[in-house]
Every structure is written in structure tokens, then in C-alpha cells.
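Hi R.,

Here's the chain you asked about this morning:
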Amino acid sequence: MFQFWVSLYRKYAADSERGFEGMENPGYRSGSFDSLHQSSDDDDDEMVDIAGATLDFSNTDDDPPLSSGGYEEHSSSSRAAGMNGNGPSKFVDPLEDPLPGVGTYEDFNTIDWVREKTKDRDRHREITNKSKLSTVALLHSISDAFSGWLLMLLVGLMSGALAGGIDIAAHWLTDMKEGVCLIGFWFNHEHCCWTSNETTFKERDQCPQWQSWAELITGTSEGPFAYIMNYLMYIFWALLFAFLAVTLVRAFAPYACGSGIPEIKTILSGFIIRGYLGKWTLIIKTITLVLAVSSGLSLGKEGPLVHVACCCANILCHLFTKYRKNEAKRREVLSAAAAVGVSVAFGAPIGGVLFSLEEVSYYFPLKTLWRSFFAALVAAFTLRSINPFGNSRLVLFYVEFHAPWHMLELAPFILLGIFGGLWGALFIRANIAWCRRRKTTRLGHYPVMEVLVVTALTAVVAYPNSYTRMSGAELISELFNDCSLLDSSQLCGYKPPANTSETGVGNSLADRPAGEGLYTALWQLALALVFKIMVTVITFGMKVPSGLFIPSMAVGAIAGRLLGVGMEQLAYYHHDWFLFKGWCSPGADCITPGLYAMVGAAACLGGVTRMTVSLVVIMFELTGGLEYIVPLMAATMTSKWVADAFGREGIYEAHIRLNGYPFLEPKEEFEHSSLTVDVMRPRRSDPALAVLTQEGMTVEEVEALVESTRYSGFPVVVSQESQRLVGFVFRRDLLISIDNARKRQEGVVGASQVVFTEHAPAHAADAPPPLRLRGILDLSPFTVTDHTPMDITVDIFRKLGLRQCLVTHNGRLLGIITKKDILKHMAQIANRDPDSILFN
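And the predicted structure, written out as C-alpha cells:
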């Protein structure tokens, strides 16, 4: 694909102002330039539902509107010059005098990848040529080359600092639901008891400095009244945190809800959603993520951290001109930022880079790979310096296993993979059905009430069970834990060894019969498994920041721990079976239940997201053990195969389709034998294609054509009779150029000729001067013939990031095929509603 890009760039090097967009765009409502950038508070009817949030099309938080700044200053200075008698009397040619706004994109449109890459190459060539002329230009060239690495450094530092703050704040607020520290309310439970001399080893989390709400209010921590008081305070804090989270999202940043990964995948494919990566989204998402995680809802912070990191990258891009003015270059930075998000979420820099490459990125050149690695490294180092958990680890559930695994254990590992695949397929179908119900019924009209009801239900059911009461990360840490002689956890409630010589590897226990405490823990885990499976379905997709990594891993870790304990007891009581002979002798540490929990977590996360390579590397970085890669690979691949048998879409692709984003999934194969003539527009019953001629049309006629249609671009032909294709012009560029010419060029009126030829035709002395617009014309639009197979056309759209392609027959223009047309056609083939594709 990289060689394909290179050859393509060489072919189109001479044309740096290309443009091809011919889709119907409901965002355009009039033919004047003012209507393009007009943004008023009264425009309440142009709203759209994205990721479950009702949003305004006019939101341009991350990029200032064209109506402010550059364009108006440019126009006003031109008008002033004209009034002083110094205005230009020659023809205005956009090729010779580039206009502000030309070459930019409207909200909810797709970028032109080839044009953006060509612009960047031309800019780089100009800087390189100038660097040979002077020392200042040479220094500018060096700073330009270094700016990408500096930007990655800043993204890593900012994302790591925010992730550390989120971890510390979430830990503190989670503990606040159960009590408060008397020596300082800002201390969480663990930090509060660090300096206490009155803790015991078995009850190291109990100290006089930390008091539960029952102790603080009633003076006692024992008895039914104290339990009820703690129960009610737990529910109160959970509802308060959830209410604050959903209110802040609804009031200040509707884009801050959800995971963010489906939208980031769409943005990285070239789609523009103004404000989704803006400063308000960053601020509100950071605050509400802490509140949502602390409320006890079945969600995680790992997915939203990817969104937070991408917001940081998008904001910092505005400090560097080459990233601020080039959408393709900015998406390279966003791909690196996605790697940073996973790096700080799991403490896995290499896994983060592979996650960005495998799961979210659309275009990932080798240079982006290096910069992603550097940014992920800086972010992990920053988080390590902050040390949010006080144990020199980047995540709460870091573990180290010592006991080796045996080849026969691959069977239960594969069994966990089957469970993970079934869970993933079931979850995706159930969650999409629930989210569709939310979008199509009155349930979606009451987001605050929905969040409060789900939070109340979660808190009421979760509190009595210690494994559902604790946070998701703490639960996974408990399940991953390898029992040692000094562990006081219920999961390590085995019967004591008959003699002290029966110990396993290191400080771990040998396989022992389960005691009363372990049986109690297993019942609680079984109930927690059922609860997590049910409540995660209705939680993911609500109007609060909600990640899916931790809940999915928790489900798999519970299932894995249950299976691991079962295998351990089977090996203890039946060590003379042929399955265990030779490698599991009495008194040996044969089975590690924590390893089963880790494999189950990977299997369930893989079943939901369909991650493979990156998931294995993330889990390897979490455990630090190379010997467990084979079990992880076996479970992850089994999980993917089983889940793919029920549907090839992961949860993020399913939400992209549910929201109608224009995203061509690279993994989806096109197997239909149709041709472009079957998909292109206009169809046989449609009116003729709206085109411009290279000469002969007046400004008034062009404006009338633009105003009577809603297309984002127009093919330019030699004449209406011949229909020989000349090029393609953007609607946006056309309106900006006409509007600017009226202000800067004398004599341009409605009767002025609009010409796209290289030389202006002769005109009568009394005729108004023509308007030359060849500079905004794309002279080499992508074309296919009417008999090109659709599978080839789809590949062209995917690999080049096209928005549309013109269809010709022997050089004559027949029609146009757009990205939206392809998505609708693919939906029809799959027996889905083609009108579900909402955006251009």
C-alpha cells in the first residue's frame, strides 16, 4: 500500500489543489458563501445524534470558523485597498493568489487524502529548496523536521500527566463511597493507613485514621444499623457522582460521552467531526471520566483515555503550522496519540503502538510507527514518574507468575477462548439491540434519568457482594493474584498445609484442598459473573464516558478464575489420572488459577473487540512473563474465530454502523459481482448529473445551479453536448472564489463569464470581465469506467481514502460514485437498511 501511495503521489505531484467531492450534503442550505460559515445560536434545527449524544452541526470547537480571522481580514484589507484606489484591477486567479478558506473542509465531510499529502509534499519541497539559500532558511528546515518529534514529546507528557491525575482522583473518589480519612480528606484508604502504626498484617487496610461513614455518623462500625448506613451512603455517593458526570456531559460537551474509539476510527479514516477532539471535550471528558468510574458503574477508563490522548494531540497540533493546516498530517499525529492512550491505560507502550496499528488507524506509515513508539514511551515514563498507585507500577493489576504451565492445560485455555468468543458475540448483539432501542424510543430522550436508574440498580445489587462492590481494576487485580503463604484474601482460603515443606515455587502455595473461605468466594464470583454480564450490556453507550476494556476483562477473569480453581481441585484430588501423571505430583504447585484468570480476561476482551496481536502483547506487558504468550495466543485466536462465526464485526465497528458513520471497514470483503454502472448516480430514473462547462456559463447561472442542488462538488465538462470530462471543482471552493472575486475584482457581476480554461476567451469591450477559476479546478480527478468491477472500485476507495470517483465511457462523463453510494450498496447486499448511512 505504501508503494501504491508513492507512485500515486509522483503521478499527481503537479497538482496541489485537487478536490473531489460530489456527495449530497444536507449541511449546505444555500448558494452563498456566507451560508457556508454562518454559525448562529438560533440554528437549533440542524442537530444530529452521534454516539447517542444530540449535537449541533455548527460546533467548531477545535478549529475556528472561516468567518473569523484570516478570511475577513484578507477581504477587508482588499476592500480597503480598492477604496483607496490601490485595489487590484487585474483578474483574480486563485492559482496565483491563493484565497483563505480554499482547500479546507466543512464539518461532517471527508478529507481528500491525496490532495493533503500533495500539499505537504509541495510544502516540504519548498522548504528544502529554500534551505540551500540562507542560514535562516536552513534553521527553519531543521526546526520543521524536528517539530514532529517535539509534538510527540508534548503529547506524551500531557497525556501521561492527565492519566496519572485521573488514576489518583478515581482511586480517591472510589474510596470516598465507603469512608473518609480523618487526617486529610484528600487521602484515599490505602494512603491514609500508610503512616499508621496500629495496623496488623491481616487487616492492613484497617486503621483508626480511616473511618467508615457509619463510624463517623453513628459512632459504631458493627451491627445492622451501621451496615444499612454504609449501604445508603454508598448509594448516595454513586448517584451523586453519576449525576454530576451526565449533567456536565449534557451541558458542556455532548461529545464526551461513550468510549470515543468508534468516532476516532472514523476520524482517522478521514471524516471530520469538529469539536470532537476540542478543548471542552478534553476538559469535560477528563472530569466526568473520574466521576463515572468512581460511581461504581460497570465501565472502565481505558477506552476513554484513548479519546483523551487524541484530544491532547489535536489541541497541541495547533501549535505547529504543518499539522494545523494539513488534515492528513494531523491524522498521523492522532494515530500516535491512540497508541499513547493505550500505553497509559495499561502501562503497555509496545501494545499501544500495535493497538493503534491493528485496531484504529486507517493510514499508518513507517514514520508514524516510530513516532508512536516514542510518544508511548514518553507517556509511560511520565505516568511512572507520577506513580499514581504508589507501587512503582503503571496499572493496578500488574502481576508476576512464576509457576510454568503444561501442554495439557491448552485444552482449558482453548475452552476459555470459546467462552470469550461466545460472550463477545452475545454482548455485541445485546448491546447494539439496546443502543438501537435507546435511539429509536423515548428512552433516548431521558439520558439523565437513564444514568441515574442504572447507577441506582448497580449500587443496590453490587454493595452486598464484595467482588462487585470493588472497582473493576481492583477486582481484576484480585483475580489475577497468585496466592502466597502470606495472602489473607478469600480466594486464597485453602485448608492449611499439613507440613510446611509442601509449598510451591517461590512463596506460592502448593495445590491444596479448598477451604470454607474459598467456597464462599466462588459463590460470590459466580453471582458477580452473572451480574457483570447483564449490567455491562445496558451500561456501555450511556451518556457518560464509558470504556469496555475493564468490564470485558472482569467477565473473563471471573470465568477464568472459576475454571482455574476447578482445575486446581481436580489436579489435587485426582493427581493419579493419566492427565496429570508425570507433571503434577502431590505437593506440587501444578495449576495457577491467576493465570487462568488472565487468559480468560484476554479471551473475553478479544471476543468483544476482535483484537489479536496487540491484545497478546498488552497482556504480556502486564504480566512480564514470556512463557505465557502461547496460552494467550491460543485463547485469543480461539475467541476471535468463535466470535467471527456469529459476525465479523467487533463492538467498535458495530457502533460505527449503528451511528451511520461513513467508514469503509478494511476487514470487510466485497464479494458481489456488480459493476460501477450499477451503483453510480444518476440512475436511469434520476435527473441528469449537474455539471459545469469550462466556459459559457455566467456567474449568475453557476450560483443558480449551486443554490438549486446540495452537492459538495461538480464535474466540469467541455460542453453540455460533448460531456467530455475536464476536471472537478469543490462547491465550497467555488463559492469562496466567487464571493472573493465580487469583493476584490472590479466589474464582476452576475453576467460575468466563468471560465475554467487556461486562457480567458476574448470578450466584447462593453462586456463585464470574465472570472477565471482554473486555479481551483482539479484537472486529474479519479475516474473509472462504467464496466469496472465494484470489488476493484471498493479497494481503490479504501486504499486511497477517496470520497468519490467519476464514471466515464470512452472519455464521456456518465456519472459519479461516492463513498456513501458504496456504503449504501454494501448495506443493501447485507440486507441492511441503506438509509442508515447518515453522513456524507
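Confidence is low (pLDDT under 50) at residues 1-92, 500-507.

Let me know if you need anything else.
M.
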